[in-house]
Design a protein that fits this description.
single chain, 433 residues, mainly alpha, 73% helix, 0% strand
Amino acid sequence: AGRVIWFYIGKLAWPVELIFIYPRWEVDAGSVLQWIFPVLAVGTLIGLWVIRRRTRGPLAAYLLYTGSLFPTMGFFNVYAFQFSYVADHWNYLPAIALLVGAAWTAVWLWQRYGSRTGTGLGIAMVVTLLLSVQSWRHTHGYRDMETFYRTTLERNEGAWMAHLNLGVLLISRGDLGEATERFHRTTALKPDNGEGWSNLGIALRQAGDLPGAIESLERGVSVDPDHANSQYNLGLAYREIGRDEEARMRFEQTVRIFPDAAEAWSELGRLAEEQGDGVTAEAHFSRAIELRPDLVDALTGLGRLRLAKGNFADAEPLFLKAANADTGTGALEQLGMAYFSQGRTNDSVTIFMRALQRDPRRAASHFNVGIALAASGRVGDAVPYFGRATELDPGNVNSLLALAMALEETGRAAEAAQVRRRAQLLEGGSPAP
């Protein structure tokens, strides 16, 4: 508490090297040096009390200052103490007492010594100029969030929260390399922070390092079992390697910790759907949609269940809503498949074309358009789409066979034979002579 008082007074008197997150010092009751601060604070109070009959102003300013600062001196648990014991914004309100006292003192000195010579006015102008320049320089570190975190780290490399938040910002724009470095630094500085391990796992998973991702996420769960994001992301990683039962347990833990985790409910629905438990899957998907009405995976999952029951009338609006909410092609492709299954090939062509417009380089979208066109009797129109699908994904045998069949039906037998030979080579067989 004593050190906090003098830290803030020092920053008011000499406002340089201001940082959003200051280094967090270690409290050691056995250190003689650390006792200097509280002793000095108490000594100052006693000294001001002794001279109170001559002037009460300094005592009043000191009491107002320390009283206003008291809630952040360390006598109460404050969430931000895990980052640092001090922060500039905690000094804003208490500083009024000292600044008023300093202003009164400056006016008194000017009236007594500087009004006749102009020295006081000159000093005031210089101080104002210096403070203005310092304020202008300080604002540069707040230009944007990235600059803010980088500026903080330049002055306090040990600020683990800045490493963490900068990593989140970097991963959102696809800079996985530096994001991973930031999360590694976070976990080194704060090994008991589950969020740091979780974000490191996410970055490694996106970078294709699934074993590393699982190791990081498991570490995150071990240090903070109640961190919902760690549980959820570990479940996703387990899903990727086929450990579905362990994934289900993680998703269940996620919704236990955070019942409003719509994505986790949706993943539980998918697992139940894959295991043939339609009743449970429908309940989980419905809960996810209740929490997030635009959650694409839950909408399409519930749509698939309704379609499997033969209830296309209830499935269609779910697929349509998912397609409107999805910025990718997945929901549109499932809607197109739903129309195709109902024999509405023209509608499926329209939907597959929308998917193709969103991602012209997706081979599956070209293939789907071709299939829908061929099924609606427009085989000739389907040929270029099958051809483009084979160009984008030369190793896809289904696309090659579909192209060969379409070429045969349009009387282009020689071309069809060449395409079939390519398909046979890919399947490992000997091409027909």
